[in-house]
Specification:
mainly alpha; 0% strand
Length: 114
């Protein structure tokens, strides 16, 4: 695989996962600007969305390094499996923070920590 192909895959990886970075930035701005906003759910959302973006970049880097090392395809396939699971976990972390924030706005669940 040529360098141009690898570079194109990096560009598309960044473009495909850019919304997660934007969500992390927006949540961080809300965390810093709005003192009345729920703090813990926003931190969880920041961790989940930024983690999803970073896992995608790390997956690209590991697969590229495996390619450079001449590793067998099974190693690359294993790396994709591991990073897909990590991406699922980071998306789950984001979803937990989002749900926590939405549930915290309900009057009948006002006892949730903020």
């Amino acid at each position: 695989m040529s360098f141009g192909t690898r570079l194109w895959i990096l560009i598309t990886t960044i473009a495909w996962n850019l919304p997660w970075l934007i969500v992390a930035i927006v949540a961080a701005v809300a965390f810093l600007r709005h003192k009345h906003a729920p703090r813990v759910p926003l931190v969880i959302q920041i961790a989940g969305s930024l983690g999803t973006f970073l896992v995608a970049l790390l997956r690209w880097l590991v697969v590229w390094l495996l390619y450079l090392a001449g590793a067998p395809y099974t190693y690359t396939d294993d790396a994709y499996t591991i990073f897909s699971f990590l991406a699922f976990l980071t998306m789950l972390i984001f979803a937990i923070g989002y749900a926590w924030e939405k549930l915290g706005k309900r009057k009948d669940l006002a006892g949730l920590p903020r």
